[in-house]
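Hello again, I could really use a second opinion on something today. I've been staring at a protein lately and its backbone has me curious. You're getting the sequence in one-letter code plus the fold written as tokens. I'd be grateful if you could look everything over and explain what you see. No rush at all, and the record is pasted right below:
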Amino acid sequence: MSKSAVSIALVREDDGIQKPVYYVSKSLTGAQTKYQRMEKLALVFFITSRKLRQYFQAFLIIMLTSINKNPKTTGRIAK
């Protein structure tokens, strides 16, 4: 994860070999570049769920995290 962009790759595994299916990348702008690492991770999952909606329509997506250490950060992500 860089300071100015986030990306994720969707891969499938066949017989122990990973094959790329889709790649998503987004340049961060303005305030997004100041996000903490956990906020950037949440942003990656949000962007991915939107762009790859056709792959995930049949599945419920739940993101589990343990970020309760800093209430300020937790509040911003919850919004």
